[in-house]
Amino acid sequence: MTSLSPGSADALLFDLGRVVLDIDFSKAIACWAGHAGCKPEAIVARYVRDSEAYRLHEVGKISDEDYFASLRASLGIGISDAQFLEGWNAIFAGEMPDIAELLPRAAKRMPLYAFSNTNRPHVDHFSKEYAGLLGHFRELYLSSSIGLRKPDAAAFDHVVAAIGVPARRIVFFDDLAENVEGARARGLTAVHVTSPRDVGDALKALGI
């Protein structure tokens, strides 16, 4: 665990997926398989999460239609854009345990920000569905809006500059080890979130 103590932070920065919002990608697979009339396993076997099209979609360089066309080709299923979108947005499975209690408590003590690799359809969806929870963040830094994504150094530098606090005084929470390493390489204090308890434990260590 990263060394944290009361008074050691001026801002908290949260990833969204599996830190604030629960994600279940099997819901997308099941939806697409249902529309395509095939077994989910057939789609799982062909789906490449971090494809070039996926990365370009996350930084707003290709349209939703182009991304869904790439899925249509790679997955070998002839479903419509609307059917792809339905599954794409089905992955949001609610709030992570305890986060609805932790965020408002933390927000009373210091500013909260979010930094997420995401895409326009997901932003449109979660901004409406989880507006109350996301209202605790002063700003959302989203890869599809800023054109940069974790774990790239330029992405962390952009967010640190926008927050306006020294990197070492920002505590960053993320569920992916490569993003935690990327944040630490740019001077942030980073917490690897592997269970819902990790956020609460870190806040406790910060005296929150």
Tell me the CATH topology of the largest domain. Rossmann fold
Helix content: 40-55%
* Secondary-structure element string: EEHHHHHEHEHHEHHEHEH
Helices and strands: which structural class?
alpha/beta
Query: What's the CATH H-level homologous superfamily of the largest domain?
Result: HAD superfamily/HAD-like
Question: Strand order of the main beta sheet, please?
Answer: 5-4-1-6-7
Number of strands: 7
- The pLDDT mean sits at 97
Question: What is the molecular shape?
Answer: elongated
Summarize the biggest pleated sheet.
Answer: 5 strands, parallel
Strand content: 5-15%
Give me the Rg, rounded: 18 Å
CATH architecture name of the largest domain: 3-Layer(aba) Sandwich
Ends distance: 17 Å
Number of self-contained structural domains: 2
Classified by CATH, the class of the largest domain is Alpha Beta
Which regions contain 5 or more consecutive residues with pLDDT less than 50?
none
Q: Specify the number of helices.
A: 12
Protein name: HAD family phosphatase
InterPro entries: HAD-like_sf, HAD-SF_hydro_IA, HAD_sf, PGP-like_dom2
